[in-house]
Amino acid sequence: MMLVLFAVVLGLPASQGVEHLSPDEPDFSCWRTIDPAGLILCQLYGSKGSSGYQPGNCQLTCYDPNQTLKLDESLCPGDGQPCSKSVREGLSKWKKDMMKTKEKLIAAWCHCQQGN
């Protein structure tokens, strides 16, 4: 009994968060690293947040209200490789641009006077 429990405890952390892809399935792992860009874009379009990416369609799904936004073509896996070098570079640039946009909007909208 203790041996079974010990084996389960050792195997549990190793199995959490690991995805096993078959050679036939495309690797979309690079798309998980782009938030908060999706959240920012959804909020700019009036939604509360993002609920998923569809790299094959180059779309972002937002919720409350539900809507689907088309992403820039530089983020699309046009060559069939969802995490090719060019797509990873495009995603990284998009993430940085969205974070800069958010910072600029906050600075423009929040003219708080301190000390008064």
Cα-atom radius of gyration: 20 Å
What's the N-to-C terminus distance? 68 Å
Strand content: 5-15%
Q: What is the count of helical runs?
A: 3
Order of helices and strands: HHEEEH
Find the structural class using helix and strand composition. alpha+beta
Total E-strand runs:
3
Mean pLDDT: 77
Strand order of the largest sheet: 1-2-3
Largest sheet: 3 strands, antiparallel
| Global outline | globular
**What is the subunit arrangement here?**
single chain
Low-confidence stretches: 1-22
Helix content: 40-55%
Characterization of this structure:
By secondary structure, this protein is an alpha+beta fold. It has helices at residues 2-15, 37-44, 85-109, and strands spanning 49-54, 59-63, 67-70. It has a domain at 26-101. 41% of the residues lie in helices and 13% in strands. The protein has a three-stranded antiparallel sheet, with helices on one face. It is globular. 13% of the residues are buried. Residues 1-17 form the signal peptide. Keywords: Signal.
